[in-house]
Every structure is written in structure tokens, then in C-alpha cells.
Amino acid sequence: MLLFSRTFFLIIAFYLATYLQTFSQNTINPSFPRFKNFERETLKVENFKNWFDSITNDENYSYKIQSETIDEIGLKHIKLNQYYKNIIIENAIYILHTKNDLIESISGYFYTIKPISNKRTIPIETAKRKILNQEKKSISYHNLLPMYIENNDRKLVLCYEFLTNDKLNSLSEKVYVNTENNKIERKINQKHFITTPIEVETNLSGKKIIYTDYTNGVYTLLDSTRGKGIETLSLQNQTTIADAKPIIDSTNTWFSLKSKIDRSALDVHYGAISTYDYFLKQHNRNSIDNKGYKLTNIVHYGQNFVNAYWDGTKMIFGDGDNKIGPLVSLDIIGHEITHGLTSNTANLLLENESGALNESFSDIFGVIIDFYTRPNQANWTVAEEVSPLIRSLENPSINNDPDTYYGKNWKPIGGTDFGGIHSNNGVQNHWFYLLVNGGVGINDKNDTFNVEGIGIEKASKIVFRNLVYYLYPQSNYSDARIGSIKATEDLFGGCSKEVESVTNAWYAVGVGNKYQSFIKSNFNVSYNNGCDSLEVTFNNLSQNSKSYLWNFGDGTFSEEFEPRHQFKKIGKYSIKLIAYGDSVCGEKDSINKIDYINITESNFIEENITYTSCGLPTVFKPSIQLDTLSTLNWYDKNKKLISTGLTYTFKDKEDSIVFFDPNHYKLGNSNSNLNTAFYNFNVRHLVFDVLQPLVIESVEVNAQSSGERIFEIRDPYGKVMISKKINIPAGVSRVELNFRIDPGYDYQFGIGGNLIGLSRSNTGVKYPYEIKNLISIKRSNAQNAGFDFYYFFYNWDVKKLKCENIIYKTKLKEDKKILDTFQIENKNDILSINIDTINYNIHWFDCSNNQVISFKNQSFFTPNKNGAYSAIITDLQCNTTDTLKCIGFSTQSIKQNYNSNYEISPNPFSDIIQISNNIENIENFKVEIKSVDGKIILKKNLMNEVIDTYELSSGIYIISIINLKNVVEFSTKMVKL
Length: 977
Fold this sequence. Notes:
The chain is an alpha+beta fold. Helix content is 15%, strand content 38%. Strands 11, 14, 15, 16, 18, 19 and 20 form a seven-stranded mixed beta sheet that branches. Strands 44-43-46-41-49-48 form a six-stranded antiparallel beta sheet, with no helix packed on it. The two termini are 81 Å apart.
């Protein structure tokens, strides 16, 4: 992206003068284009450093030439490695495609971000011990000098590089350990598997001539006539690679290899010879590195090992098990050796789209080599001779592989199998089939296509040129399309029939647009309406164009293919794109979309609420959609954010006006702590619609174990739109996401990568979960159980994103109630107050000691000593309080007669009391109940030991037992609840 401070006319002058003369470090937003043509301006190879420095704007960045290659049409391709402070950055590759010392185009991936870790405080032996002890892996080799790598968080860190092997899982990985904190920053797969159930035959290619080496009276499977040699060794069913031994025969008839498994070594040896011959004779390449690289094949690896793979330096073949034999067909061998070619050219990373391309190039060349070597026996499937069908280029869906980019059968990026690399390769596989053979049809995106085939010879030259010269480690499917079109233009010219077929074949598999015979400028954007500030991704839809100039309408420009740009000021912006071509397809075309981006100011629509309070402080809890709200934003009278939460506490009279924003909501199932036995490891996701722009701020998850999870929002085809890698603990936790999502249907919310282990619920699941006119969670993708199971993400926090938000103006009206002062009645030693305890709360207070002495909410109190007492009376509706004046008084004990023959219980009582006595003729006695002020409430003859007190109100009473002579024999003070 280029940002210019000069006028537009100076920009035009920039393109009329030399490229370097007008570049200014102050006008560039640092970004290296992944692909760029220099056909409209002249840039000499010797001036590339000035261009490089102007992009990085950092003297610590540099580069070195890795290789220089002159192709069959005379173009020189200069491959560069990027460095920071003279330390190499792994996979930072830029390729200059030059002619007569002028750069025609560039492709690759260079960095402008500064490393976040560049100290070397950890010795390499410490890092080595970490891998040996923690990872439990053996180390094949390591680099003594550290290098910068891009870690999983897309940051540059300084690391040691180790090549590791895991015998248990037959994995080979590059492991990068941070030189500053000994943290493992990244792991990259190095093994290329073809794993399948198979039934093997020997000598699959019939009788063929092979070359062997004769030394010390024996022959070995070593061909010294090709490059630096082709050698086939045996591990004799062991797993230590260093123990591999030559395969020998004393007569050179190889009758000593009697069993089918033993004779599979001959198929491997012949397959490696045929692959070497193909690349040399058809592409003038001397082995995989063009320097005669020795091809080493190791057979009879381990026991019951049903695999064939390239381990980064050599090919490995197992013998299979009692049901499946070795994978040694010619297309498999060509496939594996092509991985070595890829490692020495584009070096495509073995993950996600770059990994799918890596596997696809191997599939394609495996089939090409088969057609080249055995035209009457070859077909469009891989490994069909030795197993049930593994992959088909003609019809990938036979093996549930996709034939359309993000179409049916597309595997999730970041998911299992390193992001689906052994399945998503079906897209480029099918592209190649259509390019060779042609075809018509409708793809998974409902696009109707018609591709004219160009034959396998032309198609193979295009594929080889793209892999060797234009692609780089981080290339994706879009890069593969651009590179293949450029390679075709190199070989057959711009706007040629071959370019048309290549372009239409990509269109057929869902990558890019249909071919047009003229240059056409066009684009769209991720979204074009926002408020305050908006970052926009521009999608380039131009046809037959080679370079671009974007005018964002705010005084800034870019030459990137698909730039991202942030509009920071309120206003409407017209976007202009100029696409430049050539004399064949057209010099240039432009499109200007007037007022295309609209940035508006956030406005509040006020609604008024008057909240009446009995006094301050007071807590206000609005009733607006509290069933779905997760939080509220609270603002002062100047609309400045002052608080968040479901309630607001007014502080004083000056704080009598606040605003709140009810745009946050709760959504989804809430059963994250249920069904903990159902931790799920399947690739599952929820499907939801968005009706207004929103942010998913956070979700709740329940993890079986701690570790990093990749949270992904995908489009309806499964293409990752937003992802975030977060380290979560075991158990229930809330994960902060802040995913912005625009309106759309059938979005997917799932977990990428190989680790899932999150709880799913099948209890209380009831779709849809929705907030009207905003969002709806419709279902999961569980087969036959979409409405019975709920996967992974609970209690979503969702926030509206609108430029016009409802905000409620809340005015506090104080209406403090003044309580009456109630007279305390003092009857003997009982204090009582005439007030109900439903609307009021009463605490009794000791004035002498200045403390509350009773927290019971009751209208009476019995002190145990003389003193001054009062009551604290609180209005429960208003939180207002009155305190009665402290009154001095002397307690006087109520005279109580005690007779051991009587006991009345319980005390306090509710509806009845029980009289226990040890005297006869209880009917000769009476019971008398008085209030504390001496008023007789009840008096009657005793008929039995139970007295019904249901009609008595709560309070304190004096209960007496009186004999026939009207003498009180027993009395006591009791409390009615």
C-alpha cells in the first residue's frame, strides 16, 4: 500500500519518470506486494536495493541472493532471502524475474514488521534438551545459527531450527525454539504421506531396464549414471535410518528377491529413475535441486508400516501389513520425489492452502510422469495400482475431496491433516485435469464453465514453471492462479488461447473470474459503510491486468493487488482503480466508483426515562430486555463513558442525569457446564445468520484440557474469514474474541486446528437462539442431529454495530419519604413500637455504648440492663432511615411466679402452646394471657394441656396459671411470632 502526500499530478508524474526517482520513505505505507509487474516503469536489477530500502524503511533489513536461474526462454530468475540484522528470515523469499538486467516482475513474501524477539540468551543445547525431554522426539539435524521465523501469532521471533523425528507417529517436523525464552514457537510438518489400504503386486511396470552398481563382486541398486546417483537401500524392518543397508545381488539377475515384498525395491528403483529422466528430458532439470541431487530410497521401513513418504531428504517405504502391501507404484514414487523438487523451489509450507498446493503439485507430476513413462498404462488416478483409489484428478469427489475452492468436501483451514492438505489439493488437481482435457459443467458455486483443453505437454510446462519460478513458501490458491497465468504468458504470450484455458480452468474450480479477451478493471469491498473509522479490504476483480494503481479518495494510493485501507475521517470517498495491461490485451482500463465508501458519525437516538428515587444513594436497574442483555454502557450527561454493567448507582444530586446503551446481548445455549462427559473432538460448528453489523465480544467454553484453540468464523462455504488463536484453561472459561461480522447468512462458527476437546450439549437444546432483527443461531452441522446437539460456544456476548444507536436518558427524581417518629412504649422491661415489619426494617440501638444491639426485625425488644435505647427504622422501599431519639429509662422486672410443677412451651410460639404439669385435676385451673400493658387478652378454664393461640397477633405476652382461689401459681413472659 503506497501513501502519498503530494498531489495527484505528482503521482502521474511518478509513473512517467523512473520508479526510484519519485519514491519517498515518508509517503509509503510499508508493504511488499506478493506479485507486481514492472512493465509500466523501468527498474534495473542494480537499483532493486533502493526500492527494497524504500519499502522497509528500516536499515536492519537486507537480503542476499539464494540462486540465479536462466529458463528456457531466456528469463533470469533471481531468488532472494530476506535478513534482519544479518540473520536470515526463514521462508522470506522474493523472486526477481528479469530480462537484460531489467526487472519484468516480482513475486514472493518479504516482511516489514519488526521482530518481537531478537535476543539470544538460551544456548542451543538448552533448546535441544527441551525437544528431547519435552517433545520426546529425536533430532536429525539442527542449525547452529539462529534464524527469524513467523510464529503462530504471525510475529517474527528469533529461533533455533531443529529437524525432528517421531518414530511412534512416523512424523518428521521442523521445530523452532525461541532463543530468548526457550518456547516452542512453531512446528512445520516435513513428511508427505500417502496412506491407504492396498493390495500390492510386484513389478507393476513389467520388465524394465534398470541401472545397478557393481563393486567388490556384488551388484547394488545404485544408478551412478544420473546426477549424483539414485540409490535404493533396505532397513530390514528396522526404524533407525542410519542403519539402512545396500540391496545386493551376486548375479545382477535379482532372482534373490523372491518374495513380492522384496521385489518392491525394484519398482522403487525404477520409479526413481523414471522420475529423474522426466524432469531432465522435459524440463532440463538435473534432479530436484538442478545440481544432480542424489535420490535415496529406503524400503522395508519398520513393521506393519503402511506408508510411503518424503522425509525432507529422502523417500521412505514401509512393507504394509498382512492385508496391505507397499505403496510403490510409479505415480506414488513420482509424487514423493516431486516433494523434494518443491522443497528446492517454491518450498511451499505443509499447512493449509500452501500445503494443499504442495500435495497437488506432487499428485500432478506423479500422474504426468506416469503418462510420460507408460502412456498406455497411465490414468488420472493416484496409486490405483496398489490400493483402492486414493485420489482422482478427474473426479476428486470419488474420495470425498473438493473439486471447487471452498466448495463441497472442502476441509477446514487450520483443521485436521494440517488444514486438509491431502484433500483440498483436489482443487488444483482438477484444475490441471480440465486444463489438459477441457470440460464443461457447473461447479459448486453454481458457475457454468467451459474450458478448452491444451494437452498434457503444454499444461505440464505451465505447472513446472509456476512451481519453480513464481511460487514461494506462503503461496495460496490465489497466488497459484496468478503465477500460472504469468507462466503461461511467458510461454505462449498474453491473451493467448493458452492463457484463456488456464484462466477458465481456474474459474471452473472456483478461483478467480472467467477469462475476458480484453483488459477490464473492477473490484468490490468487504463493506463500504461504517462510522468513525473503517478498515476496508479491496477485492480485485480485474481481468488481463498486470499492475494496478488505487486511489482511495483521501489522498492516499496503493499499487498492491488487493490492499487493505483504513478510512479515518467522516465523509464519502470515491474509489478509482486503474488496471494496466499490455499491447495485446489492452494498455489500461479504469473504474471509478463515486461515493463508494461512506463513513458517518456515530449518533445517539435519545429515549427519556424518569426514575423516581426515595433518596441517595440508589441503584437503578432498567427493565429493558434484561433477559438478553449481558451488560450496559453508562454515560454521564456529556455522553462520556463512566461505567458498565446491568445497574448504575447514583452518587449524589449532581449525578442525577445519566445515559445508558442497551446494545449488548446474551445469546445461545447456557449449558456449558453440563454434559462434561461429552467432550467432542469432531469438526463441528454452529450455523448462524447476521441481520445487522455486530461484534461477538466473547463466548463461554468448557475444555477437557488446557491449550491453544483456534476460534474461526467462516463463510457458508467454510472459508475462514476471521480467526484467533487463544490459550484457554481446562474447565469452564470465558474467551474474549471481538469478532466483527457484517450481515450475511449461514456463517459458521467452529474450531480450527487439530485440538478441539470442547464440551457439546444435547440437553435443553432448542434452536433457533436469536435476538430479533439482529442475529440467529439456527443449527449445528452434526449429521442427523442438527436440532439435538449444541457445539462448543455458550452464552455469546453480542454487541450491535450501528451508526445510530438508541441511548436512554435517565433522569433521577428524588422523592425522599420522611418517616414519622414513633413513640417507644415502655412497659416494665419490654420496649415496643407500633410499626409493621413488612415495609420497615427495625434495629434496636444502645445509646450508651453507641452500637446496634439487635438486628432482628421485630417491633419489640427486651433490654437486659438499665440504659438509654432507641430504634433505627428503615423504609425498605426507599432506603431512607430515621432514628428515634435515645430515651433513658429504668428496666423493671416483671414479677414472675415460679412453680416447678408447670412448664409452658415453646417460647417463642406461633399457633399453640403446650402446658406440662405434674398435678392432678388440671380442669380446676385457668389460663390468663395479658398484653405487656396489662390488658387481658384471653382467660379461660384449662380443659387440657394445649392452648390455641392462633388469633393472637405477634408480640409479647404475659401468660399465667391461676387456681380455684384465683391465686397466680405460675407466670412467664412469652413471645408470639
